[in-house]
Fold this protein.
Amino acid sequence: MSLEIKVPTVGESISEVTLSQWIKQDGDYVEMDETIAELESDKATFELPAEKAGILRTVAQEGDTLEIGAVVATIEEGEAPASGSDTKADEPENAATPQADSKPAPPTDNSSSISYATGIASPAAAKILREKGIDPAAVKGTGKDGRITKEDAEQASAPQTKPAAETKPTAAAAPPPSTGAISGPRNERHEKMSSLRRTIARRLVTVKNETAMLTTFNEVNMKPIMDLRAKYKETFKEKFGIGLGFMSFFAKAVCTALKEWPSVNAKIVEDEIVYHDFVDISIAVSAPKGLVVPVIRNTESLSLHEIEKAVAELASKARENKLTIEEMTGGTFTITNGGVFGSLMSTPIINAPQSAILGMHNIVERPVAENGQVVIRPMMYVALSYDHRIIDGRESVSFLVRVKQLLEDPARLLLEV
């Protein structure tokens, strides 16, 4: 008796997943609770375990988009192969034994390798072949049981045009205009968008279309914070076991400013404005599969070293694709740092359903005026994108000015003045 393995429920807001990778292959013997595949949702990657021991029979293919509850594979009754034995060792012997009443197979060069999958293209391969105008029947599959893989499709050549001898000459035909010589390869590569990338794209377009988003800018003299870090970074690391970065200063400044301007920490739900008396800061992190935004809960109650540890832990999990749904759900305000990639200025997009996002940027030494003198200072542009439906210009500008004041005088963060 076989058991169906279905896509489990992985979160209230998740309706579909992508089968990103088979860990075990069709026909493999698997133990109960052994990971057989990886599923990718729009928020995280999950492992799919075997619900009993037996022989795995795959149903879905890598790259398939599956709804919650869809059948991914089945597990049939079977015993683990003996150590060192080959489960297929007796197949050639059986195939070589003639049967008296069996009909001869039709003559073919590769009849022994033909199966139901021979010549069948995977979804990704089929798309590439359609774009190239190639008939799958003209492609030899190198995948399991002769299946046409994505790599086969990418390497397949488009059908050649008829030779010149079959084309009727046209006496008045003019040579095509020269567009200049083209040298070097001009290859193209097609990849299916992941669930995470599709969701990011959909949400960004939704935010642009459904919010009255505006951005206000300011600049921060980072010298006071940089001097403070240089003076205490060794002591800080020895005491707390974590480096003192810029993010903790920005997070603390944001928390103070949000208390004074609560609408920047609010959101719209239908026809109501929901205000929060806590600050859950979302930190935008670049992960291997795309941008993720884990959340630091109750940031307003954390110290600088607690914030630094939380940021380091979440960033590490993001790089290893180990963030949970809970760690990426919620958030009342977002901070994103494009400066780590060298960005000088940008207009960050709001992380819905939040109403505002603060963008940090690269620190660049520039000439500025101080007390009537031109001096060189390490300056950073900061940007606040906000939803004008709930946050007025006065509130947005005042919020960003307050953040600037706190960062340029870090003692205010400790004294809360």
Q: What stands out?
A: The longest helix spans residues 223-240. The longest strand covers residues 373-387.
